[in-house]
């Protein structure tokens, strides 16, 4: 499904749950990748098993065939416009968890409040550019700290983009491997499924 945004059409790939729907998970891709990334597909599988419909969102720049990401403000605007239309057309008042991998996780964090998210799922959150751990001006930690709903971060223990610290309402799950999170996809599915199950049981 294509959705018109202020910055061109976005594309949504919907994967409904096989059971009764109790919520939805909206996921965005990384800066240079697509919605077929292995960690996104593993999270999709876990969410569907937990009773959530999943909607994988391709940003307009990717739909247009560009690999270089759009500026953050454009990414955030397009994301919120897609979320708003999904709410109008299919989600209604269902609880919505937002998330994504890498750049998509940053978008989900920055827009969580405006999008009315119940929680945020971050796969390989890029805490800082590689090699810039000591430069506080390059840290993306303020984007995480600004989120007021529960957050799960699944991070490779050798991720060159850094390891986010624990914080209030923030759960960190480390896995073997790097930024791709491909080394332990069953472990990723398990971590995401357990976290979503606890959220749903607690009525978050």
TrEMBL record:
Q: What are the recorded GO MF terms, alphabetically?
A: hydrolase activity
Record-annotated KANL3/Tex30 alpha/beta hydrolase-like domain positions? 24-164
Quote the SUPFAM superfamilies the UniProt record gives: alpha/beta-Hydrolases
Database matches in Gene3D superfamilies? alpha/beta hydrolase
Entry's Pfam families? Abhydrolase_11 (PF20408)
Among InterPro entries, the record links this protein to:
AB_hydrolase_fold (IPR029058), KANL3/Tex30_Abhydrolase (IPR046879), NSL3/Tex30 (IPR026555)
Q: Which UniProt keywords apply?
A: Hydrolase
PANTHER family for this protein: TESTIS DEVELOPMENT PROTEIN PRTD, TESTIS-EXPRESSED PROTEIN 30
What is the name of this protein?
Alpha/beta hydrolase
């Amino acid at each position: 499904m294509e959705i018109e945004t202020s910055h061109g059409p976005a594309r949504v790939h919907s994967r409904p749950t096989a059971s009764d729907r109790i919520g939805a998970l909206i996921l965005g891709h990384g800066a240079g990748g697509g919605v077929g990334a292995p960690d996104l597909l593993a999270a999709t599988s876990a969410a569907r098993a937990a009773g959530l419909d999943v909607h994988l969102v391709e940003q307009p720049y990717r739909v247009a065939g560009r690999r270089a990401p759009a500026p953050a403000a454009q990414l955030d605007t397009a994301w919120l416009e897609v979320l708003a239309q999904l709410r109008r057309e299919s989600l209604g008042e269902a609880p919505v968890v937002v998330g994504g991998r890498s750049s998509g996780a940053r978008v989900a964090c920055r827009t969580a409040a405006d999008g009315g998210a119940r929680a945020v799922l971050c796969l390989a959150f890029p805490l800082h550019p590689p090699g810039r751990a000591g430069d506080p001006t390059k840290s993306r930690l303020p984007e995480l700290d600004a989120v007021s709903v529960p957050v799960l971060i699944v991070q490779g223990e050798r991720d060159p983009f850094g390891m986010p610290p624990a914080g209030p309402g923030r759960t960190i799950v480390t896995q073997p491997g790097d930024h791709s999170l491909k080394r332990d996809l069953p472990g990723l599915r398990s971590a995401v499924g357990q976290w979503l199950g606890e959220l749903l049981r607690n009525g978050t």
